[in-house]
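Write out a record, focusing on structure:
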Amino acid sequence: MWVVKLGGSLAEGERLPEWLALLATVGRGRVVVVPGGGRFADEVRTAQRHWQFDDVAAHNMAVLAMAQTAMMMRSLVGTLEPVLSTADVRRVLRRGGTALWMPMQALRDQPDELTSWEVTSDSLALWLARQLNAERLTLVKSCAVEPRWDVAEWAARGIVDAAFEPMARHAGLAIDVLSSDQVETLRSWLTGTPIGTSMA
């Protein structure tokens, strides 16, 4: 099982449908898609600065921002199957679908290790991957990413959130970051064929 997190910033470009189509087809039976919060989450940050409400409320609103992105993704590619729980994920994958995480299980009544702006959708994707005992987590970002960079470098450059590096140290799964123009790289990984090889 792979968890693929599509950064909210992809919604600002033109390649989001291409990524979704890949995951909805080649990812069938294997992939859980995690949406970023994107512009919806930015609105939460703006509102919290203005009204000074607590981080539990902000966390929950940011989770709902991810859910809004998921709804948009489902509208773009209708074969993605929304899921609410890890049990739902496993059911969808067993029958050969591609799961789209609606992150309601990340909502909180009380503060905990997740209810901070140090935790964004990157760390929530890692949290979900650990809950699912996934073999791999791939984060797709709009920024350029060098293959030689490791988790510490991603953190230093602000590519991942502040909580991600310490969570990743003991995650027990492979973690990659791809830029938004590397859709063929992920296709190659999922199919086990070199880039440019015809599947015909």
The chain has a mean pLDDT of 95.
